Each structure stands twice: as C-alpha cells, then as structure tokens.
Amino acid sequence: MNPSTNYDQPLVIIDMQNFFFKRNKSEMDVIKERVKKVCKLCKLWIQRGLPIVLVEYNLDDERLEKPSDDRTVYPIRRIIKNYPHVTRVEKKRDDGSKDLLAEFAHMHVDPKELHICGVNLAYCVADTLHGLFHRKNNVKVKLYKEISFNVHSPNHADWHKSCFDDIQSCASNYNASLEVCECPIPA
Predict the structure, then answer these.
(1) pTM as predicted
(2) pLDDT tens string for the chain (187 positions)?
(3) In this structure, what CATH number is given to the domain that contains residue 113?
(4) Count of domains observed in the chain
(5) Is 4 within the bounds of a domain?
(6) What is the C-alpha to C-alpha distance for residues 171 and 96, in angstroms, rounded to an integer?
(7) Quick check: is 3 in a domain?
(8) Omega within 30 of 0 (cis) for the link into 120
(9) Residue 187: inside a domain
C-alpha cells in the first residue's frame, strides 16, 4: 500500500473470512446481505480514494477444508482486487490491534479515525477494539453496527446490543471515542 495515501480514515474489515461463514449455513442469507453491504462500503472507500485494511486470522491448522478458507470472502476480494490502497494484516489471536498498529507504524501513518466492521462481534471485533483503546491514546472509531455481527447468530439483537454496550464501556474507560453508527452506504 502507498503510504502517501490519505490515511486519516481507513476502513478496517475484521475477519470477514470464508472459514467463519462456512460454519453457519443456516444463516447464510443474512450473512450474504451483510457481505453485500460491506462490498458497497468498499466501493464508497474506493470512490473516495481511501485505504482499506483487511485484518485476517491466520488459520494455519487442520480446521481448514481448503487454503482459501482463511481469506476474506470472494465478493469483497473481487471489489478490492485492483485497488492499490489495500493492505492485509495477519493476526494469530482474536485481538488484532497490535498487528494493525504495527502495520500503521511500519507504513509511518497515524490514522485520525478508524472505520470498522467485521465478525465476530463478541470476539475478534470486540477484542481488537479493546486492544486499540488500550494501546492507542485518544483513538477515534466508527463501528458500523449492521455489518459488525456474530456469524452464528447474526439476528440476535439483544446479544449484539450487549456487545456494543461492552465495547462502549471499554472506550469510555480509556477516553477513546467510539461511535456505533449506521453504515454510510449509498442506496
């Protein structure tokens, strides 16, 4: 990725990987709709010339049916395929904040506001946000609620609300700015 790109507002997509979606075939219609929204958001970022960061779990283990299972889902990869302002950050644990911040430091960039979506909300998204709040002073985050969800129960509103409340509480503890908001995708 080109460090001269405006890194004030990167879109960070956490763990939108085949492996996680294949584990819940019963909710696949809902998941596909959410992926379509992420694709629209990627198109918006591309139109604006803003960077996109894929944070992916490195799943080097026997759980993978095939090597592509640890990649971001194809509809998203297809949209960003030739876009020059994409980077992939690999992580080995639920909290990808350390790896994400290390990549930003390596590129000599300091984003002003992170726009985040992904799965699983209660685990990787929440843990990455907790880590960001802990590691980066005064971090500002916009978390897109309808495309940040738990794959095994994407329509469980009470569980999602509890997750968002927990993340908001953590942000408050670290004087971070968190806005849980609607996705700004064009109609």
Answers:
(1) 0.90
(2) 444 457 789 999 998 887 777 766 667 788 888 899 999 999 999 999 999 999 998 766 555 455 555 678 889 999 999 999 999 999 989 999 999 999 999 988 889 899 999 988 899 999 999 999 999 988 999 999 888 877 767 667 788 889 999 999 999 999 999 999 998 876 5
(3) 3.40.50.850
(4) 1
(5) no
(6) 16
(7) no
(8) yes
(9) no
